[in-house]
Amino acid sequence: MSQTQLTPGMGAGEMTVTGVAKGFGLGPLHKQVLCDCSFTLEKGKLTVLIGPSGCGKSTLVNVLAGYEAPDAGSVLLDGKPVCEPGPDRLVVFQETALFPWMTTYENVSYGPRVQRKMPEAEFRRETMKLLDLVGLRDFKDKYPSQLSGGMQRRAELVRAMINQPKVMLMDEPFRGLDAMTRALMQEYYVRLFEEHRGTNLFVTSELEEAIFLADKLLILTNRPARVKKVIEVDLPRPREFAMLTSKAYQDCKMEALELLHEEAMKSFAAGAVNAADFLEACSQMGQDQAVPSCKEGPGEETRQ
Amino acid sequence: MTNATATTAATPTTVTAPAEQGGALSSWQITLFSLKQWLKSPSPYLNVLGIVGFIVFWYLATERFKLPWFNKLPGPVAVFQEWVSRDPAYGISIYSPEYYHHIFTSIWRVLQAFILATVLGVPIGLFMGWKKTFKDYTFPLLETLRPIPMLAWVPLSILMWPGREASIIFLTFLGSFFATVLNTLLGVESIDEVYFRAASSLGAKPRQVFFKVILPGSLPFIFTGLQISMGFAWFSLVAGEMLAGEYGLGYLIWNSFIMVQYPVIVIAMVTLGVIGGFSSSLIRMVGDRLMQWKVREAAR
């Protein structure tokens, strides 16, 4: 099937998530991270997942990717349950996950090489074509440490795309880039998407980025996370940065902002309650050791 | 490439970074370039000054002022004269074949033991990091045996092996083996989880993960470990040779002490130091060769 499709890129699969729950730790240490999470990643749509930081977005991506099994609920890709990681759902990670000991070319061609689905000549051609597409042809023999942050993300993007995944899972891929590079990467990514129209899930904590990219916006609640609201973003495609001043964008932003603010407040309040408990617990324990860490306690908690 | 332009912009006349000449950098070009840079910095001269300062102090303390505690020690002049003498008073100088016999005996023992320790230690360490069950079996054993000082092994190794040669090599092997295993294991454990996730997502099978992620990912630690293990090998070798040797630098040191041939002790010690340092940098060079991605990172 992949033989006929000449341009590698993002395939279109449909992912259905039903009632997914996930927690960590046992007994008194148990923390529920996801609770009754349900949504659908529609075919050929770019769905953006946004929520307060620390709400469990990455955990959700790990479950979808198959790195972690959900405690309850199901994840189906084109009707088949997801139970282990595989090249049909590729993740582009928060931090760069290019292998530092391989050149750009070796990194990008890694998937086809280990899967042994196509002959070497073919994946060589595909790799070069994709490197051309993202402007990295001249950097094919460089190691990741010799590339800039933006180049690394582009290399990572094509390393995933060459496998023609049914779903691309982008876990805050542009985090840590400077504002300029980030804007460039957003534009780049949205062009790639508009050309290929694969099924994409993009996780972010930046609202502007979210609306600029999204067909559909999923807003998550505070921990334990579930989908609080789905907003359809009906900005026209191709997307342009100029749209960030349009009325439709502003309305969408206001609506999302209100929901996010509510969650952020809850998270803040929860943090404050935790902090109060923590302080009380400290005062009941021996003073010497507990006191200095107490000072850090509330700050730590509210950031959650 | 960004850096090459940056370098030229900053210092247009002084240095030409090899990267500018276009094409791929060979590793010796990088080495040559960094060597030139190094010679321009104050460090090499300070390095020499440090050594010279030590020798001057040694000379003043022993031969010049004959300070208490130092007055029995051979001074640098006496040692040097003996070392380069065509007719050495105690039979050991750069002209005596016996000197080289001692050196090569020691090097040959270390080489056998070190290769054995590496060939066994690296795979065991990798396997311990790869398979948790194997680690559960072996790790407590390793951590119990590892802290036992090499000298404590001397009686058992004499009892266990026929002849001195085998028991000296065994002691040397033990010294380097534990360091190699432990560092290799730490190397595997230092690999970020994200690389395993990326590999499994991209469809790599366990064997491919082993050769393409675990092995290259732990190389930096393995080579740090090999340098440490080389140090331990020399340490254990000398201990072994002092107790059971017939030739070798460790034997030479102890024998010269008993025979009151003090300058020879210092000759053998300095020889050990030079060879030990040399073997360490040899390992570093092999490591740099195998880890081009690290060298280039540093040179860029």
Q: What would you say this structure looks like, in words?
A:
The complex is a heterodimer of chains A (304) and B (300). With 304 residues, chain A is an alpha/beta fold. Chain A folds into 2 domains: 15-245, Rossmann fold (3-Layer(aba) Sandwich), CATH 3.40.50; 256-304. Helices cover 42% and strands 20% of the residues of chain A. Chain A has 9 helices and 10 strands. In chain A, helix 7 packs antiparallel against helix 8 and helix 8 runs antiparallel to helix 9 (287-303). The radius of gyration of chain A is 21 Å and the shape is globular. The N and C termini of chain A lie far apart (45 Å). The longest helix of chain B is centred in the last third of the chain and has 39 residues, at 206-244. The radius of gyration of chain B is 24 Å and the shape is globular. The N and C termini of chain B lie close together (8 Å). By secondary structure, chain B is mainly alpha-helical. Helix content of chain B is 77%, strand content 0%. Chain B has a domain at 97-299: MetI-like fold, CATH 1.10.3720.10. Chain B has helices spanning 2-10, 27-40, 43-64, 76-83, 97-130, 132-145, 154-160, 163-190, 193-201, 206-244, 249-258, 262-290, 292-299. At the A-B interface, strand 6 and helix 3 of A face helix 9, helix 10 and helix 13 of B.
